[in-house]
Design a protein that fits this description.
Blueprint (H helix, E strand, L loop, with lengths): L1 H12 L8 H7 L3 E8 L4 E10 L2 E4 L1 H4 L2 E8 L2 E4 L2 E5 L4 E5 L19 E8 L2 E15 L2 E6 L11 E3 L5 E8 L7 E5 H9 L4 E3 L20 H11 L2 H14 L4 H11 L20
Helix pairs in contact: 5-6, 6-7
Length: 285
């Protein structure tokens, strides 16, 4: 069944699919697992997770935030999660699942702009891959949030973004409403730090209502790069100029706001009115 699914994925992706070969994808399918969540309010939701060690599966906290029970599907076997290590702000939850084999664990790497990457996850319960390229790296909390062109949708949250050597560079997390090339992944660097830090372990259960990821915060509390992306996506150049200037003052050693200001200085089509910006859309698990 897996071979048939992969063949369909390759046919659907067409000539743009070039990041990973079918054999590598088959191997990765044993490391990127389906996550099932029974919700406290009733019903269930689906997400994805990546094996990062013995008994350890990384996923998004927005996948597990309403959980009463969590299970991971490994080779047709449903394994319950016993606990999770929570980093809600960075949208990374590390599930402790007895029976997850260390041989399935992936290696980590850092992303680079222009690099070919492959998104791997489970969409509507089916194994799904998407080839793309890293278009930007946004500095935040000692690492870089990855922006790429890889399409992913509901259910792929918590899946993996892999380089050409099948190393994990990020965990798929969210996308910007109405934009192309605005798919974001949490950097593997954050996950590596989480694996080294035993804090945040808690029983499976719903997270606190205020335990939100940075991209789920009110717009004015989000990082500058997300606020700028929302304005740029709308073509709201007049509002983008003062935001970029504020960003440059706030993060004086970050080159990204200076590069944005340089691009804006070349524009001659600033609108007379500035529409209100929108916030990034939350992915459904």
């Amino acid at each position: 069944m897996l071979f048939a699914t992969l063949a369909c994925v390759l046919a659907w992706s067409g000539p743009a699919f070039a990041a990973l070969d079918p054999g590598t994808l088959i191997k990765l399918s044993t490391s990127v697992l389906k996550v099932e969540v029974i919700r406290v309010q009733g019903g269930y939701s689906l997400g994805s997770g990546v094996v990062v060690g013995a008994d350890q599966v990384a996923t998004n906290c927005h996948v597990t935030r309403d959980a009463r029970q969590i299970a991971v599907l490994q080779g047709g076997v449903r394994l319950p999660a016993q606990s999770q290590r929570v980093d809600a702000y960075h949208d990374l939850c590390l599930l402790h699942v007895r029976g997850i084999e260390s041989a399935r664990a992936v290696q980590f790497a850092q992303a680079a702009v222009g690099q070919a990457v492959t998104a791997v996850g489970h969409t509507t319960g089916q194994f799904h891959t998407s080839a793309g390229v890293v278009v930007a790296l946004h500095r935040l909390d000692g690492a870089h949030v990855i922006q790429s062109t890889n399409y992913f949708n509901s259910g792929a949250s918590g899946g993996g973004l892999f380089d050409a050597e099948s190393r994990l560079v990020g965990i798929l997390s969210f996308r910007l409403r109405g934009a192309t090339g605005h798919y974001f992944a949490m950097p593997a660097d954050w996950l590596a730090r989480q694996l080294e830090d035993p804090q945040g372990e808690q029983a499976i259960g719903p997270l606190a209502s205020d335990a939100l990821a940075f991209w789920q915060q009110p717009l004015q509390a989000q990082p500058f790069f997300l606020r700028a992306a929302a304005l740029e996506n709308e073509g709201n150049w007049r509002a983008l100029q003062p935001l970029a200037a504020e960003w440059a003052r706030h993060d004086a050693d970050d080159p990204e706001p200076r590069q944005l200001l340089e691009r804006l200085a070349l524009r001659r089509d600033l609108p007379a009115e500035s529409p209100a910006p929108s916030a990034p859309r939350r992915l459904q698990p």
